[in-house]
Structures are given as C-alpha cells and as structure tokens.
Amino acid sequence: MNLPEPQRLSAFRRRLAVLRWWLLAGLALAVLAAPLFLDIDLPLPPLVAVLLLMAVFNVVAQHRREGEEFGATELAGQLAVDLAGMGVLLYLSGGATNPLVSLLLLPVAVAALSLPGAWVAGLAALAVGLYSFLMLYSLPLPIADVARATRLHLGGMWLTFVVSAALVAWFVTRMTASLRERDAQLAAAREEALRDAQVVALGQLAAGAAHELGTPLATMSVLAGELRRDPGLPREAREDLELLCRQVALCKEIVGGLTRKAGIARAGSADGVPLDAWLEGLLARWRTLWPQASCALDVAGAEGAPPLVVPPPALDQAVTNLLNNAARDAPRGMRLALAWDAGLLRIAVHDRGAGFPPEILRRCGAEPMPAHAQGAGIGLWLTRAAVERMGGRLRLENTPTGGRAAIELPLHALAPPTTEEMD
Asked: Which residues pair with 397 in a beta bridge?
C-alpha cells in the first residue's frame, strides 16, 4: 500500500477527532455509572485524570492548523496515544477481565483504513502487547458475587459490541464516502486533462492548416480583386464579388489569428475595451460570414459604464461557435444577449429553431459529436473547453421559442492585466 496523500490523511484526522470524542464520552459514562448503578468500586481519581488527559490531547489534535503538513507518522502517533490511554484505563479497571477490552481494536481498525502496512502492523502489535500485559497485570474489579460478575461481564461484552459496531460503521461509512468523492474528483481531473490534451493537439493541427491555407487565400483575394475591376462585369456579379472579397479578407484575418500564440494579444494590451463594444465588434465580423442570417444584440448590464475587458481569442471563438450553431438551425430572428453584474458575465445566444436534441442537452459539449453535413461536430466541445478553462460554464436549454446556449464567466478572468502582470 502506498503512502496516502496529505489530503486523505487530513480527512482521517478530522474524523478521528470526532470518533475520539464519542469514545471518550462512552468511557466517561461507563466510569461514572459503574459506582452509581452497578455498585462497583473503581479508583475514580486516576480514571478521571486519564480521561481528562485524553480529552486535552484531542483538543490539541483537533485544533491543529489546517495549513500544517500532516503525515502518516503523526496519525500513527495519535492512534498509539489512544491505545496507551485505553490501556491505562483498562489496567485501572480489571485489565483483560474488563469487557471493554475489545475497544483496543478500534485504533487498529482506523489504522488499517488510513495508514501503510508497516504502521498498521506496528499498532496491531502494540494492541496485542497491551492485551497480553493486561492479562497478567491489572487492578482487579472488586466484585465478590461470581454469578453477578458473570452477568455484568456478559452485559459489558454486549455493550462493547454495540459501541464498537456503531463506531466502526460510522467511521467506515464516512471514509468510504470521502474516498468515493476523491475518486470522482480524480476521474474528473483525468477527463479534463485528456480534453485539454485533445484541444492542444487540435490547436496544433489548426496552426498547420492555417499556414497551408495562407497561399490559396491570397490567390483567391488577388483573383477576386482583378475580377471586380473588370468594367464589363454585371452589377449583380460585382456585388457578389464584393461579398466574396470581404469573406476572403475575414478568412485571412481568422487564419492569421490561428498562427499567433494564445495570450500574446492579451499580454500586450493593458487598456482593454468596453465589454459591449467587444461583443458588437465580434457580432459585426460574424455577420460578414453569415450575411443571410439576422441577429439582434441585447445589452442589459449593471448600471454604469460597461467594464473594460481583454477577451482571449478562445472566447471570441466560443461565442462564434454558438452563433454558427444557431444560424445553421434557424438563421432568422436570432438574438445575442449580453448581461453582467459586479462579478459575472453572461452571454446567451437565442434562436427560433427546433431546439437542442436530448443527446446534445445530455452531453452539453462534454465530448465531440459525430461529424455531420453542416460541420465537424466539435464546436460545442471546443466552446465548453474554452469556457471552463477560464473558470466559467456552458449551459444549453430549450425554451418555448427555440434553443438557448449561454456562457457564464467570472469578470475577473477577462480583466486587463495589471502593471505587475505585464512586467
């Protein structure tokens, strides 16, 4: 068994402190009840002193600062102190004849759940050594009636079993839930790392494609410009060529952006642009690519001037992907909504189409979709990856009038860099 990580040991430490309080409460109740209800004369002063020392030790252990390093050695030391304290209590109250002697197994069970094998073996050996010592040396319980002593012993064994079963069940259940939560977090981290690796690989392919597309786009631009200058060209054809030239110019701008490293534009700009102006510019560029679509912009931010932002290129592409998906479904009557408050930015794309299929709503961009006639099936996947890397989230839902795709981002992720960051 490998050494558990510090976070897992810290979780065991917190639960061990709670378990120790329950155990001390039960032992204190047994010590105080024996003289009153069972007529057993116990050495109360030393027993109470040991219980108080164990309580003080638990207070110190429980209030240890969370930021301090906590390892297997300290956890094993705490369990050894628990065994020693219970050993002294049992020595003062009958030793191995005390039915509560089985409580020595509790620290060993906790060690088996939280520590490497060497520490577990050492604590188990300590428990066995204490039990063996108590079989030979202890202060006997003063009970003259043998039949009564037998009944008390059997009753004590039953009580020990109930307490041990309850405490072990509680502790194991809590730790199992903690381990399941940790495993779920590890699985999510692995999925995120795999997705990021896929995004990086896709970015490398995009950069290579952008490099190769530069020459044919330049050729198309030259040819379109020459055709546009032809005096005998019909007016309708000239208008189409105007649109073609704008489309080619925009494609060249997009391809040029793909070849630049992400973050250069953001690091080089300290002033930023107003949030609404940025989105208006993005929408204007998108309309050049989709002249047949109609999309209105609604701005409903907080009072005051819009915040200044320096959006990364990935956010531009994420919003563009949502607009493209909506335009493919229903290009007429689209609406791009922008809203913000003190700490959160919301960008939503509404369309008047048939809405999202159930499979799209279920996946919500968690993985690429199969390629289809209108695209490669990776738009939502790239959008979600970009948004989550900036600390936000993507939400898809169907409304009575169509589909709605919304991006929620913390505004600080888009804030202009400070002077220290630029240096």
From this structure: 404
